[in-house]
Structure formats: structure tokens, C-alpha cells
Design a protein that fits this description.
Radius of gyration: 20 Å
CATH superfamily: Endonuclease/exonuclease/phosphatase
CATH architecture: 4-Layer Sandwich
Number of domains: 1
CATH topology: Deoxyribonuclease I, Chain A
Number of helices: 7
Oligomer: single chain
Structural class: alpha+beta
Helix content: 10-25%
Length: 343
């Protein structure tokens, strides 16, 4: 295994020499990921989750629950492993019911060796689904956790809270914001003000961190329920694809160019959307490689995560189609990025 990892890293370092014009050097590399795991509920009755109980419409039971956990753990174990030889150092998750499902998840055979630790706070979502963060303690030490609740004047509107985690990642401070913005239920245009309000809260969090420390490194990751080119992301979050001629306040979105090439993380009506995104502060783009910098991002779209035939051929392979259990993974594909620094 060590020999295989060495070969993979040697290829990566050769690419870095080409990109940055440096002589051949060794680099540390880490993978950061996000995955909307689609309705990860336990089997016990909770708030507004009757369908995910043994008596509910989906006949959700212990066997199906552990099948789902094993599937998600198997995916996590493979994200970025072709380069790092290991599972992600950090992974944000959405559509998590509670701390119990996370504790069960990290104990599954595919990932239990990594000893993932959990950051989770029960939030405000009416369905009871939250965001969470899993981290490997040899990479990351949490120093601060905060939850931000979105308050608007939109009648009867309650949405998922925004989870922010600050910590020491391999010796340097990095801030993570894990998100799941309001859905497009009722139509994209009608629901747009809800997402814009959520984005503006995220922007406030980013500005607060940056005002306190202009050199702060920030990673935003989540299911944004908008594509990288939508105004909520481009205008209100203030993202760019320009690595060189960018404003300090602009955030870099590596997912935008992927979307323009037809890459997506979920499919609907034969159209791909790229709602799942990782967006970073411009402080990850400096050429000084003595601390962690952005290398590249991708969608984890291995063939086993997709329907092989039928009406939904090449769509993400879900746990259910309607109320029919098919034993898949999620209606979303994971996204991930690599960060590197000189060793």
C-alpha cells in the first residue's frame, strides 16, 4: 500500500511542478468532502418523520437502516482515496436526523478504522434534518463550534441552521461552514428569496470571520439548492472563477467551471444540477506553499453510484424510488477537493 501511495503522490507532485513552476518537492495532501446523504433517519418516531418508521409509508426498518449506513460508509471510504490512499480528513454531511445516526455511521466497518469524530447540533428544520461534520482527529482539532439560525420576515418559514466549525487543521486554523439551503419547493423563482436570505446569512458569517482575521481560511460546503451560476451564489455570496484578478472579498468557486461543462450532482427531468458545492476563501489561492492551498475539486461520480438501466439510467442511485426500497445511496453525488502544502 505504501508503494502505491508513493506512486500516486509522485504523479500529483509532478503536476504541481507544472502548475506552479517549482522544482520537484514533496507535499502533504488532504481531502475535504461534502455529501448530502438523503434522509438518514433512524427507525424511531420523531418530529415529522413517520414515513421513516416501520409503520410508515416506506416501511423503514433496522435492516434497511443498516444497509443505508453501510452504503454511505462505503462511499466515504472511497472519496479521494485514489490519490490519498485513505478516506477524507473532513467530510460535511446533510440530511442527518440526529447524533445517533452519526454515531452508528462512524462505527461501520468501511470507516471505523479512521476513528471519525462528530460535530452536530440539533437544528430548527421542521423535518428534523441537520448538517454535521465528521473529522479525523489526527488531522483536525476543533476549537470553536457555532450554529446560526436564519430569521426572516417570510411568513411560516423555518429552515436548516448553518453550522460553523473552527479548528486547527494539521497545525493551521481553518473555518468550515456546512450548509443545506432552502429547497426549490414551489418553484425556483418563488422559492428564491428564501435561498437569498440564507446566502446573506452565510456571507455575514464569512465577513465576520474575515474581519477578525483577514488571512482566515474558510471552506463553505453544502447542498445550496442553486447552481454555481445562479444569482444567489454569484451575486449574493460573491463568488468568482478567476484565480488571479480577484477581489479579496470574493470567494473562489471551483464548481462553476464543472457545471458549465455539464457536470452535476443530482438529476431531475433529464437535466443535471450542481447544487452540492465547495467554495473557498481567496486565502487558499496564494502561491506560497508553506501552508495549505487549494489544488483541485471534483464530483465523486463512480459508476456504482448510478442507476444502470431503466427510466433513471445514469441518475444517482437512491435508497428509495417513491416508497419502493432499492437499496441505493442518495439522490445526490458527493463533492470533494484536495488541499496541499509543501512538506
Amino acid at each position: 500500500m505504501k508503494k502505491q501511495i508513493y506512486i500516486l503522490l509522485f504523479i500529483l507532485f509532478t503536476i504541481n511542478v507544472y502548475l506552479f513552476g517549482q522544482e520537484s518537492k514533496q507535499y502533504r495532501i488532504a481531502c475535504i468532502a461534502f455529501y448530502n446523504v438523503e434522509n438518514l433517519f433512524d427507525t424511531l418516531p420523531g418530529d415529522n418523520d413517520t414515513e421513516f418508521t416501520p409503520q410508515g409509508s416506506k416501511r423503514w426498518n433496522t435492516e434497511k437502516y443498516y444497509k443505508k449506513l453501510d452504503n454511505i460508509a462505503d462511499v466515504i471510504s472511497q472519496i479521494g482515496a485514489d490519490v490519498t490512499g485513505s478516506a477524507p480528513a473532513i467530510i460535511g454531511l446533510s440530511e442527518i436526523e440526529n447524533i445517533t445516526v452519526l454515531e452508528d455511521l462512524v462505527k461501520r466497518d468501511a470507516i471505523k478504522q479512521y476513528n471519525y469524530k462528530i460535530v452536530h447540533i440539533d437544528g430548527s428544520d421542521l423535518r428534523g434534518v441537520d448538517c454535521a461534520l465528521l473529522y479525523r482527529p489526527e488531522f483536525f482539532k476543533v476549537t470553536k463550534i457555532a450554529m446560526y439560525k436564519l430569521i426572516t420576515d417570510i411568513p411560516d418559514f423555518v429552515t436548516r441552521d448553518q453550522l460553523t466549525i473552527t479548528g486547527e487543521f494539521d497545525g493551521e486554523e481553518i473555518n468550515f461552514i456546512v450548509l443545506h439551503y432552502p429547497s426549490r419547493s414551489g418553484g425556483e423563482q418563488a422559492s428564491r428569496p428564501k435561498r437569498v436570505a440564507a446566502v446573506e446569512l452565510t456571507r455575514h458569517i464569512v465577513d465576520s470571520i474575515s474581519n477578525a482575521n483577514p488571512d482566515a481560511k474558510i471552506v463553505i460546503m453544502g447542498d445550496l439548492n442553486d447552481d454555481p451560476i445562479n444569482a444567489s451564489i454569484k451575486k449574493h455570496l460573491r463568488t468568482t472563477t478567476n484565480k488571479k484578478n480577484r477581489k479579496a472579498s470574493e470567494l473562489y468557486n471551483p464548481m462553476e467551471e464543472m457545471f458549465k461543462k455539464g457536470v452535476g450532482t443530482l438529476a431531475y427531468n433529464d437535466k443535471w444540477n450542481l447544487f452540492d458545492q465547495i467554495i473557498i476563501s481567496s486565502t487558499f489561492l496564494d502561491k506560497d506553499m508553506s501552508s495549505y492551498r487549494f489544488y483541485k475539486a471534483n464530483v465523486f461520480n463512480k459508476a456504482f453510484l448510478l442507476h444502470k438501466e431503466g427510466r433513471y439510467k445514469d441518475y444517482p442511485l437512491r435508497t428509495y424510488v417513491g416508497n419502493t426500497f432499492i437499496g441505493g445511496y442518495s439522490d445526490h453525488l458527493p463533492v470533494y477537493m484536495f488541499i496541499i502544502k509543501q512538506h
